[in-house]
Amino acid sequence: MRKFRIGLIGLGGMAQEHIRWMKAEGRFEIIAVSDVYEEALAKVGDQLDVAEGKRYLDYNHLIEDADVDAVVSVTPNNVHADIIRACLQARKPFMAEKPFTRMFEEAESLLELYEKQPIPAMMAFTYRYTPAFRYVRQLVREGKIGSVRSFSVQYLQGWGAAPNNVPYIWRFNKDITGTGTLGDLGSHMIDMARFLFGEFEELSAQLHTIIPQRQDPASGNMVTIEVDDFASFQARMEGGIMGVFQTTRNAIGSGNQHEVSIYGDLGTLHASTLNPNELIWIREEAPGQLARVVVEVPASCKVTQYADFTALLEGSIPDGIAGFMDGYRNQEILDAIIKASEIKATVQL
């Protein structure tokens, strides 16, 4: 079977996860790497046995490399738009990390280019590949809990909480990220809602910064934080389904807790990253008698992100894959949440 020759841009911690996923899939060979830090280039280049001439400080040279079949981009937010633009211009298929861009204006210019010359493109909304979420989607589509009336989604982490004294890092820098927790974790919640229920129709929101200052490890000075570390919003989805969303990095005891509860006329479903291979199904077992059942996820729902990327590169579009337009729509909704929080009013989509 053909192996796809990958150029990997961004060699930080998350890149190691993508390297592991690609190796597990067995259909990829990383032949080129790019990073702005020479030390990272040397370390990961040696790890992957990448030729010296394929280690690029400038990602444009990697994208232009004729030996590279497709690009995987795992970088901070401030270069997302430029990398996607370069891939579109070079007609190089890619998978890019979320959020799509820092701000919606960047996304709009990319859409214009994509519509002129579309290419195979995938957004790395990784939680579409959590088996429990895929099974929930199947059960909802099959009508197992009847008409869905409402749902709640939360994505909680605890590493940013006050007792941890986390210093000022790039994730708190508005020039790099565009938003804080909203873009980092909230983008996953938005994508999960669209993955399960379809499009947003209207929303209202509140963004807040719980810890307003953090210490710069380089200077020792306190830096004012200009991005959110708590976000909540509520939305009406197509079909009149109502949703409530919450995310923060200040939830002590939450390592990586992304979960959804779905309320239908015939029952309730709950799925979480904490138990990725099972879900909770509350349903009526007998008239007036509810049962809370733990259900194991079937093997058919255990699809991998890089299996879908393989299929995309081979010319098909797997059900549930997050494509270019999913990234664009996600950014559009992020922008609407910011606007709703600023004007303290409901925003139509």
Summarize this, please?
The chain has helices at residues 13-25, 38-48, 59-64, 80-90, 104-116, 131-141, 174-177, 181-197, 305-313, 324-343; strands spanning 4-9, 28-34, 55-56, 70-73, 94-96, 121-123, 148-156, 200-208, 213-215, 222-224, 230-237, 242-248, 257-264, 267-272, 278-286, 289-296, 347-348.
- Seen as an oligomer or otherwise, the chain set is single chain
Strands, count = 17
Instruction: Note the run of SSEs as H and E.
Output: EHEHEHEHEHEHEHHEEEEEEEEEHHE
Q: Could you give a short account of the major beta sheet?
A: 9 strands, mixed
Our estimate of the beta-strand percent is 25-35%
Averaged pLDDT, please? Answer: 97
Spatial strand sequence of the major β-sheet? 16-15-14-13-7-12-11-8-17
**How would you classify the helix and strand content by structural class?**
alpha/beta
Low-confidence stretches are none
Termini gap: 44 Å
The gross shape turns out to be globular
Number of helices in the DSSP assignment:
10
What is the alpha-carbon Rg in Å?
Answer: 21 Å
Q: Give the fraction of residues assigned to helices.
A: 25-40%
